[in-house]
Amino acid sequence: MAATTTPCCAPIAREPLSETDAADLALMLKAVADPVRLRLLSMIGSHAGGEACVCDLTDAFDLTAPTISHHLKVLRTAGLIDGERRGTWVYYRIVPETVNRLGALFTPLTAPAPVPVSVSVPAQLTEPAPARPVDAELRTA
Q1: Torsion of CA 28, 33, 37, 39, to 10 degrees
Q2: Which of 88, 105, 113, 116 would you call most buried, defined as having the most Cβ atoms within 10 angstroms of its Cβ?
Q3: Starting at the edge strand that comes first in sequence, how are the strands of the sheet with 89-94 ordered?
């Protein structure tokens, strides 16, 4: 019977990120760190059919169309969404692999990360005990 192992912790705590992974993830995290972009990502992902027309997104915000376009461009540059022009409108959809990668970075820990244990042994256990006077008397007798 083969033993199955469960990872001890989320990838962010399992091992140090490489420089490339850290840069890629930072780009994605910066993209979703803005409330407007986070809402846009959520609206696109939860839209019927898995994609949303830019015309459906702009009315939800008190922002100009160029500002919404800027936020969508940031999400697209981060690889979180993709778009397709159909006539005069662009339809956006989430890129599942990228969003899943971002989500997996902080998956709940199944167990705490291992903590290095250092054991300090009291000096009286590592040094020989001094001879007691009674012991000295018994040895001379």
Answers
A1: 120
A2: 105
A3: 51-53, 89-94, 81-86
Has this prediction a pTM greater than 0.70?
no
Task: Please write the tens of the pLDDT for every residue from 14-67.
Answer: 778 889 988 999 999 999 999 999 999 999 999 998 899 998 899 899 999 999
Nearest to 68 by CA among 54, 53, 84: 54
Can you read off the two tokens belonging to residue 101? 């990668």
* 51 φ, ψ (degrees, to nearest 5): -145, 155
Report the alpha-carbon distance of residue 141 to residue 136 in Å, rounded: 9
Tell which residue, 68, 80, 73, has the closest CA to residue 29: 80
CB 105 within 8 A of CB 53: no
Q: What is the DSSP string of 29-94?
A: HHHHTSHHHHHHHHHHHHSGGGEEEHHHHHTTSSS-HHHHHHHHHHHHHTTSEEEEEETTEEEEEE
**Encoded tokens for 111:** 């167990």
For 135, the 3-state DSSP assignment is: helix
